[in-house]
Design goal:
about 110 residues; 7 helices; mainly alpha; 434 Repressor (Amino-terminal Domain); about 55% helix
């Protein structure tokens, strides 16, 4: 069985394929090396602007990156992404409503 690709794993694999260090990738997308390391270890997700720059540098599309983020596992279950409070704040600043799992709103929708 093949291992599920996460956004972090994809970024790391593409970066290595292009023979870039974390520091070189960070410089090209105007972030810190620690931000790249955090994304590659699935410690958080890049914001919308960084996703666009990552896609350009890694020669892929933002849509492909979104598909990786939103992918489902082979059993049809949603893949849960552990996102940080900073990512939630960024999403909410763009008008998205973030509903935590197990919230009352999810339960109401199931009825």
């Amino acid at each position: 069985m093949s291992e599920k690709t996460t956004l972090g794993r994809f970024i790391a694999q593409r970066r290595k394929f292009l023979r870039l260090t974390q520091e070189e990738l960070a410089e090209r997308i105007c972030v810190s090396k620690s931000a790249v390391a955090k994304w590659e270890t699935d410690g958080g997700l890049p914001d919308r602007d960084n996703l666009k720059r990552i896609a350009q540098v890694l020669n892929t599309s933002v849509d492909d990156l979104h598909r990786i983020i939103e992918q489902e596992d082979p059993n049809g279950n949603d893949v849960r992404v552990n996102i940080t409070s900073e990512v939630i704040a960024a999403l909410e600043s763009y008008g998205y409503k973030v509903i935590p799992p197990n919230s009352d709103e999810i339960e109401k929708g199931k009825r």
